[in-house]
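Lay summary

Proteins are chains of building blocks that fold into shapes. Our project writes down both the chain and a compact code for its shape. Here are two examples, one after the other.
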Amino acid sequence: MTPGIPARERALAFSRAAAAYAAHRPAYPPELFGTVEEAAGLRLRGARVADVGAGTGILTRQLHERGARVVGVEPGAGMAGQFRRELPGVPVLRGDGNALPFADASLDLLTYGQSWHWTDPARAVPSALRVLRPGGALVLCWNDPDPDVPWVAEQGARIEERFGPGYFISDCTPPPALAWTTRVLRWSRRVTVDFHLAKLATHSAFILLDEAGGAEFLAAERAHLAGRFPGGELDEPYVTTVAVAVAVRTPAGGGS
């Protein structure tokens, strides 16, 4: 995260780079969806799903392609606008996970792809339990660079030196109030060095950095990567963490 800048400002900053975000951020590995179905005890096809913090619709698209009746929820105007361009047939609502715009017990599944860490869990957990039907499920997932790969760890150290600790890897700790099934999936995609740097530039710290400072950091990073990958391509490795909790609501709508 970017030190000294409020979380809401950081979250809404993505709207400034919505088109680049849609073009360069990774989708989720296919194995994630089987994991969700198994842990939640439901099929995605026909399920009533809200994808919260949907951004430009990366996870929403994958849920839609698997037959889910999915709606996006996104607080940022720029991201919601890009969502509509990417997925014109899928509805998107303006809102966030702290106060979900749905009726009680109306959803089978709530997903948060790369977005739970922008919520206030003290508000987001009760909100999720309110809108999920009994037996519905809350799904949190994150795509992070794989720090076990040496060049990724070296890049992460440079990023944290520039922006501070906690920026490079997401906090993937689910809230303790619920019982979670957690899986870790490793995968990679082949991209050019320039594509990788363009993806890096869609992270909030780079968006909020002044243009000269961002360009300077990315130019230095290009030099590091050119020495390691003279052919101009690399395998961009990811660790995808997915956590699934089945909701059991009390009559008063409390926790489970």
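And here is the second example, written the same way.
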Amino acid sequence: MSQPPRNVVEIAERRAAARADKDFEAAERLREELVRAGYDVYDTPGGGFELTERPHYEVWPSVRSIPVSSIVEGRPPGDPDPKSTVPYPGSITETALNDAGTPSMAASQALWDGAIATSRVDRQIDIPKLTASVALLVDGWPDDLRACVAALLAHSDAGIIALDLGNVDGAGDVLHELAEANPDRVRAWHVAEKPHWDGGTAEWGPARTKLLQLDTADAHVIMDTSTILEGDAIRPLLRALEVPDVVGAGWKGVEPESGGTEWRDAGAGEVPALLGYLFAVNRAKALGVGGFPEKARFYRNADLEFSLMLPGRLIVPEKDLPVRQARHRGYFDTEADYREQESTRTYDRVLDLLRR
């Protein structure tokens, strides 16, 4: 990293002197002068300072401060109309609807069986009817981000939207490079807030909800940057979401053991909950429940809480999707006491939902 110019250092030194004299008004003016010169200043113990060159892209102060313009009035994109034509062969007729105008349980099963059959045909003609955005939360580990996005670009046609929290370890800079190199596929937002797990104020639930609100696609695909596609694993999820009463479809599903204290793999088919490594959700339905859990500060167990909030069926469409899991940094590379404290805090709410 290059050293700041001497004139910038001199401004920072005058600001430090102003702070030492408790002339905070002058210190603030000098801070603003540094910003105009392209540098952020951070105070260090003992009256010192650290200068950091500002990134050459827009950085919002916080997750909350990013304006949202994609939420539309009326029925949002992706909200299935029960009277619309179902896209699968052998789809239900009008007589298969119940009094509420929604598919009966038998009809829903027929639709799902049709979806499975359709997913086995030539992928070249299996074109999903729904648009999709893959939503990435970027909170560090830039090499993982590069690998994740490269695989998405190679194996899927979905758009990619990403929110950078605090440019941890330069991950925000890498995100900016990826967006610049792929403007037709990648859209990025950056905030100065660092993630909560790293001592900042940006929390998992509100950050995920902001991405959901910024999305304009029918299907919102939640994905962790440790998840790597080895083929088009997005397409089967979108096909599953075309079934009217399916609200979420994912790579891995789980079900609670007796008492709800442990969860086990649920296999393919309908499941009680989906894991946040990779799953697609009907964006309109997710917005309808207010988005992701507002109180979830950390990712762990928040995917279970979100799944249980959704008003519809959850599906694992195939036993083996073309996906692999790299090192899951959010679990293995965060401080253990913090991880357990926040996981327990969220799981208490999961247990409340299971009791309902």
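What can we say about the second shape? The CA atoms of residues 219 and 282 lie 5 Å apart.
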